[in-house]
Amino acid sequence: xxxxxxxxxxxxxxxxxxxxxxxxxxxxxxxxxxxxxxxxxxxxxxxxxxxxxxxxxxxxxxxxxxxxxxxxxxxxxxxxxxxxxxxxxxxxxxxxxxxxxxxxxxxxxxxxxxxxxxxxxxxxxxxxxxxxxxxxxxxxxxxxxxxxxxxxxxxxxxxxxxxxxxxxxxxxxxxxxx
Length: 178
Prior knowledge:
- By secondary structure, the protein is mainly α.
- It has helices at 2-46, 51-60, 64-87, 96-115, 117-129, 132-173.
- The chain contains 6 helices and no strands.
- It is elongated and about 65 Å long.
- Helix content is 87%, strand content 0%.
- α4 packs antiparallel against α6 (132-173).
- This is Lipoprotein.
- Keywords: Coiled coil.
- Residues 20-47 form a coiled coil.
């Protein structure tokens, strides 16, 4: 009887260890996935050779059709990040659903912000081709777009704060911080 109790206790300890170990491995995997997506997003918007830099180069050179092509490619890059995050399994991993949800919302907000430049590029393109009479109205349109874009920045700031909070809680819960 006493031997069975020890055997049961040992099996319970082993099962608990395996469950914790598998859960911790999944948490590490999600953390790595989040880190990879952050690097990809940074490459898109901050890299010297990223699509944002390419788009700005085309705008400066007044090559608006090329800037629009790059804007479309940038949207596809953000779609890829979002799709990959949505596909990552989070069931049964505490805090994973929340960190995934906030990460997706953050990247969607970034995608909306950087996709908004399509409207600005089109407006610039129309301004370049406009007659002197139409230029004032089109310039006013650019100002309106800039004001609307400020709201998109606010959305990104809020989404980033929510993601950061959820990510910090997830890392703490799964002891993933250094």
